[in-house]
UniProtKB/TrEMBL annotation:
Subcellular location: Cytoplasm
One Pfam family here: TPR_NAA35
GO terms for cellular component: NatC complex
Protein name: N-alpha-acetyltransferase, non-catalitic subunit
Keywords: Cytoplasm
Keyword Cell wall biogenesis/degradation part of the UniProt annotation: no
InterPro entries named in the record: NAA35-like_N (IPR057983), Naa35_N (IPR007244), TPR_NAA35 (IPR057982)
The NAA35-like TPR repeats domain, residue ranges: 314-670
Similarity comment text for this entry: Belongs to the MAK10 family.
Sequence ranges assigned to domain NAA35-like N-terminal in this UniProt record: 31-174
Length: 765
């Protein structure tokens, strides 16, 4: 125990409980401990720290005990009371969908932890609002949560990162009520509320109607049911669309009344119910969503579930790639939606409920004009490639940090798969070496390795650019990130151009490869052209942002963390150490270590990166902005010409086009006097020398380097040279500071959160 002097030095937010613990310990004998009855021996043995949630349940105050004592399951309820409980329970449900635990949300409602009476749905009791309205809503909500829990048990989402999954199986009334039972109870509630008057009755009737639709949707929208009855998809989507309309009408009609029902029913919700379920104890505290936030979460949930119909309607692997990449960029998708997309996409050896997983890669290669033959070796390769492709699509449905982490790990696997595909292509070519077509250069376009290389480059580009969305990169790292991205997209563009030149008429293909219809030769060529248009735009965009970020870094607008402070000698010494070539090379190797061991494309080495940077430094900084604007203008013109190849649902092209136009407009806002300023007239090399001179001068001043100054006095030439360089550096820095302080050149960046957050949008003022 700490003494009073130690506690006196602590922050005021800490509460001294020494006396309380000492007094409590006096009442315990040797080997005794304070624990609730629900804490098992296993929980106690596996709790290795004092603040483990299973041991630290929180202290019940007198007010808590008084609130708990007010719980009475037989308490009569008015319509206003019933509406308040229904709204609070709805907030609990939506908070759970937002990654909270059951213990912080649903289980706080005592109706789920107490034994419900047999009077549910009975009109003969004197508590009709409770028996005919509230109980049916409680039962139906429990069945909805049970359905969502069953989806979580598929392990498409991860415990604690996505939603708190406890070790105890959730039963919700021990499965006493089936789906027909719950729907019947809701019908009884609807009939009773139609006989009542008042806004509370109308709002409760809307609650019942939306709950009925929501229960029907969740009861039919899962993989096993859809595979047995494909027509269930249309029915569930119709119900979901109707639910969205009803929910929007509810929010619009009762906007002035939402949250105004009653002052609360005491005792119904026990916020400290953690002591009852120690094995489900959450790691972090979570507050309930407000009622307005809960309704917004419901709207987001419904919109997300509508993506299932979009996914099942896609007809090509190309569209699936763009679909899942779009899903990966939607940071507001709730865990249940992401899990359901994975379950419906691939399960029980099928893709999209119809196509065998083993045929998925055959279809993907065939879509790009490739010829996929038969044979055991080909079948084994297709099975392995399909597994990797399906796993990648599943990964794109995870949260953003895991997407990037796993994608960078997958790159090495795809590199190995590419080597296997090359060997397979060579083996296939050798089987036809004696035939007449062996002399035809189109006989062996290396379709397997070409497709794998294409997918690997898609994975590399996505993994690299996802770091922008996640704020992995600091501003000063943008030049090397976009330089590397430009190299990847350029390699991808060249590869797609080669594939486009190797296309040939398709051979007869098994109908099992297509879930909707065949893809014709013309469509295969158009698909390659669409890929080529997107990758070419990505390359131009990365090149332009590379020029812009390099210019900003040379101007000192994008500073590294160690270059933001000049107040101490230690900070300046750290700055000098971090600016050495060896430190820069170490940072480069750490940032791109996932790509450094790949066989292709040739990894960008630090020496090559330094060489490209030196080439840029030969140009004036203002010219970099001008050239970047020209590159973006050419990219926009090329995308305008390619737009006819993309249909109205091509979000990938549309979102990329938005980023290109937004950055082009931002560069156009740079005034001519700013671009022609002496600050921007300097080359990158001069700016680098100026910054180094200013740093050395600051270090010398901070260290009081008398010896260096005395030596400079004895050497007039050195003194003059140093004085001229320092003077020029100070003048250049003054021009830069003047531009920034006057508002002529302020550079910031953000991401297009609703469009394409993997790319930055620069703003200049």
């Amino acid at each position: 125990m700490a003494d009073d002097a130690e506690f006196a030095q602590m922050d005021d937010d800490w509460l001294d409980i020494t006396a309380l613990v000492r007094e409590g310990a006096r009442s315990l004998g040797s080997g005794e401990m304070i624990k609730p009855d629900s804490l098992s021996l296993l929980d106690a043995m596996t709790s290795v720290q004092v603040m483990d949630p299973r041991l630290d349940m929180g202290m019940l105050t007198t007010a808590d005990l008084a609130e708990i004592a007010l719980w009475d399951i037989d308490r009569p309820l008015t319509l206003s009371d019933t509406l308040w409980v229904a709204n609070r329970l709805f907030c609990c449900e939506m908070t759970w969908h937002n990654s909270a635990s059951l213990l912080q949300t649903i289980y706080t409602c005592n109706y789920y932890t107490d034994n419900l009476p047999t009077t549910i749905g009975s009109p003969t009791t004197g508590n009709r609002e409770r028996d005919l309205v509230l109980y049916p809503l409680v039962v139906a909500t429990g069945l909805c949560c049970r359905r969502v829990w069953d989806e979580y048990l598929r392990e498409n989402v991860y415990s604690e990162e996505d939603v708190m999954l406890g070790s105890t199986v959730v039963k919700f009334f021990d499965n006493r009520f089936s789906l027909p039972d719950a729907l019947g109870l809701l019908d009884v509630a609807q009939a009773y509320l139609e006989t009542q008057e008042g806004v509370e009755a109308d709002m409760l009737a809307a609650h019942v109607s939306m709950r009925r639709r929501w229960l029907r949707v969740l009861s039919s929208l899962f993989a096993e049911y859809l595979s047995e009855d494909p027509s269930a998809l249309d029915r569930s989507m119709d119900e979901l669309e109707a639910l969205r309309q009803e929910h929007n009408a509810y929010r619009s009609t009762y906007s002035d009344h939402i949250g105004c029902a009653g002052a609360g029913v005491p005792g119904v919700f026990d916020v400290k119910c953690m002591r009852k379920f120690p094995s489900l104890a959450p790691i972090k505290p979570r507050d309930l969503l407000a009622l307005g936030e809960a309704h917004a979460a419901m709207a987001s949930l419904v919109s997300g579930l509508l993506l299932v119909r979009t996914m099942l309607g896609l007809e090509s692997v190309e569209s699936l790639v763009h679909f899942f990449q779009g899903v990966s960029r939607q940071g507001d998708l709730l865990p249940f939606v992401r899990s359901l997309l994975v379950s419906v996409f691939a399960g029980d050896g099928l893709v999209l409920l119809a196509q065998p997983v083993s045929e998925f890669v055959r279809r993907a290669i065939s879509e790009l004009g490739g010829h996929v033959g038969a044979g055991e070796r080909v079948d084994l390769f297709c099975m392995e490639a399909a597994r990797m492709l399906v796993d990648w699509f599943r990964t794109l449905c995870q949260n953003a940090p895991r997407q990037r982490r796993i994608a960078l790990k997958y790159v090495a696997g795809w590199d190995s798969l590419q080597a296997e595909a090359e060997q397979l292509d060579i083996w296939i070519y050798s089987q036809h070496a004696s035939e007449a077509e062996a002399s035809d250069p189109n006989c062996n376009p290396f379709w397997f390795s070409s497709w794998v290389y294409h997918m690997k480059l898609v994975l590399m580009g996505g993994g690299l650019m996802t770091g922008v969305r996640l704020d992995v990169y600091l501003d000063y790292e943008f030049p090397m990130v976009f330089c590397y991205a430009a190299q990847i997209f350029e390699a991808h563009q060249l590869h797609l151009s080669r594939m486009l030149g190797m296309t040939s008429p398709m051979q007869p293909i098994d109908d099992r490869l297509w879930t909707r219809r065949r893809v014709s030769d013309t469509e295969s060529k158009e698909q390659l052209e669409r890929w080529l248009a997107i990758v070419a735009a990505q390359k131009d965009l990365a090149t332009a942002l590379w020029l812009v970020s390099h210019a900003c870094e040379r101007l000192g607008l994008f500073r590294a963390p160690w270059a933001k402070s000049k107040k101490s000698q230690l900070a300046l010494a750290v700055w000098q150490k971090q600016e050495t070539p060896s430190a820069q090379e170490a940072r480069f190797a750490l940032r791109f270590r996932a790509f450094s061991r790949l066989n292709s494309p040739t990894p960008l080495s630090f020496a090559n990166w330094a060489g490209t940077r030196e080439q840029l430094d030969e140009h004036a900084i203002g010219d970099l902005f001008t050239h970047a604007a020209r590159v973006l203008a050419d990219a926009k013109a090329a995308m305008d010409q390619s737009r006819r190849r993309f249909g109205p649902g091509s979000e990938a092209f549309r979102d990329l086009y938005y980023v290109v136009v937004a950055n082009s407009v931002a560069l156009a806002k740079l005034p001519a006097d700013v671009v022609g300023s002496p600050a921007l007239a300097a080359t990158g090399s001069q700016a680098s020398v100026f910054r180094e001179a200013l740093l050395n001068e600051a270090v010398a001043d901070a260290a009081g380097d008398v010896a260096t100054r005395a030596k400079a006095k004895r050497d007039k030439k050195k003194r003059a040279a140093r004085s001229d360089l320092a003077k020029s550096a100070r003048e250049w820095q003054a021009h830069v500071d003047r531009l920034v302080s006057s508002g002529g050149l302020k550079v910031a960046w953000s991401t297009a959160a609703e469009r394409h957050p993997d790319w930055p949008l620069f703003t200049f003022t």
